[in-house]
Amino acid sequence: MNHPTRRNLLKLATAASALAATGTIPAIVEAAFADEPTTAKTATSKALPWRNWSGGQHCDPAARAAPASVDELASLIGKTPTPVRAVGAGHSFSPLVPTSGTIVTLDRLTGVENADLKTNQADVHAGTRLGRMSEELAKLGLSFANLPDINKQSLAGAISTATHGTGAKIGSLSTFMTELELVTAQGDVVTCSATKNAELFNASRVSVGSLGLITKARVQAQPVYKLKRKIWVEPVEDMLDKLPELTAKNRNFEFYYVPFSGLAMGIINNETDEAETPAPLNEDDNALMQLKQLQDWLGWSPSLRRWAMQKAFADYPVEERVDFAHKTLSNERGVRFNEMEYHLPRGKAADALREIITTIETQNIRVFFPIEFRNVAADDIWLSPFYGRESASIAIHQFYEWDYHAYFTAIEPIFKKHEGRPHWGKLNTLKAADFAALYPKWDEFLRVRKEMDPSGKFLTPYMKSVFGA
Ligand SMILES: Cc1cc2nc3c(=O)[nH]c(=O)nc-3n(C[C@H](O)[C@H](O)[C@H](O)COP(=O)(O)OP(=O)(O)OC[C@H]3O[C@@H](n4cnc5c(N)ncnc54)[C@H](O)[C@@H]3O)c2cc1C
To answer: Does ligand 1 come within 6 angstroms of the Cβ of 92?
Structure first.
């Protein structure tokens, strides 16, 4: 079945080329689709350099380790060069992983087991990618309540940074953990839950690799369910006017603002019993590169760029799709970028977004990536950016080959002014004193961190700047 929706964006190229004096597709377009970097899958005696997904973070570790069992991990932790940093899929943008010591991957500790169909809970080994976890759970008749924009992350990496999807009443992935198993800095294996080592449980569900290596999690799932997705485009001011209603009435609601267009693309998902429809062709990456062409050709004239985009989006059809949740909630992202995302008190987010749009468009900042707006429910996890407050998240992205500093430096003060807390895995310039002011349970977390890692085995210079250690 031919889904014309995102393909419509291809018209942008026609519109732009008609206006541009010259028009060859830059070679950079092909480079943008290069393969993702891989993380080490087996132990190696000679440590390879490491870099993250975007290429923005890298290091030359003294050692890498890929233990095949919890016992192996427990025995290596006392012997290997420090600082020791766990890596999942390397999909964080902030420098959480780079170390001159040891990078430990749990890629050999994967899979789902011990599913209990009465409680809808199951044990998931820490290195399991979210995509594989979702497929294995689905075979057992279970599904996660929500997923992020992609499903390439490891479960432990995702929960360590409070990775989230969208949904006003749905918390981050960390909130669906009912028990964690960790290997500590001393090589001990400990488990924690709401009733066992409760302080450690409150601290470790979002702990950026600073309390120990998470080896296993018991996750709360639910019976498989289907979602009906709807995508539409309308003026961003209309979208913002309807924000409270769209947020309250839909299970999952998010929207993207396309810079310099005045337009937003809304996406809602609600549970349904309707029959599945064929998956549409994913044209998101092509559409993005069309937006890039428009920036390249018409970046000198925001008004021409706006005109071209409004023309291209004018007859954008409403797109609908029905499928099982784990197949529709996450996407493929082939065009690499760097990202900053802040989580704001929900009532402040619309004004913050308006300020961001004005700043980008009056300063004519060089950017073509849409701005993402999502909702996340409040929780009680000490270092969760959603601790104690219903939140809305705003994410800005910069093409991986372009320097992000000017753009992110212009926008970050707006996030801070509106009491934003940064996503732990995304770029920000905050230090210990800033985090202390934003997190009511900051001191409690620091106390547990010190108890768990008195010698600072997990502390790199960056992690010291975060914890003031
Ligand atoms: C294309 C793309 C899309 C994204 N979409 C979203 C999104 O929709 N929502 C969202 O919230 N985020 C999103 N992110 C961010 C991403 O989900 C987080 O940065 C996440 O932490 C990455 O998981 P990872 O497995 O790659 O972990 P890594 O980046 O490798 O590690 C993250 C942190 O987890 C720690 N860690 C990893 N494994 C362990 C372990 N076993 N024990 C203890 N600590 C561990 C690391 O030390 C580090 O501190 C996206 C990132 C990319 C690149």
So the answer is: yes
Q: For ligand 1, atom 53, name the residue with the nearest CA.
A: 91
> What atom of ligand 1 comes closest to residue 425's alpha carbon?
19
As its CATH architecture, domain 112-223 has 2-Layer Sandwich (3.30)
Q: What is the pLDDT of residues 10-40, one digit of tens each?
A: 444 444 443 433 222 222 222 222 233 334 3
Contact between 117 and 222 under an 8 Å Cβ cutoff? The reply is no
Q: Say yes or no: CB of residue 157 within 6 Å of ligand 1.
A: yes
Dist CA 390 CA 368 (whole Å): 29
Contact predicate 212/190, CB 8 Å: yes
| Tokens matching residue 288 | 């993005």
Write phi, then psi, for 409 (nearest 5 degrees): -65, -35
pTM of the model: 0.92
CA–CA gap between residue 301 and residue 292 (Å, rounded): 14
Q: Whose CA is nearest to atom 44 of ligand 1?
A: 209
| SS3 state at 15 | helix
- According to DSSP, the β-strands at 142-143 and 222-223 are antiparallel
**CATH 3.30.465.10, the chain: domain bounds:** 112-223
| Tokens standing for residue 209 | 């690799």
Q: Report strand pairing: 63-65 vs 102-105.
A: parallel
Six-digit token string for 396: 């800005």
pLDDT tens digits for 453-466? 999 999 999 999 99
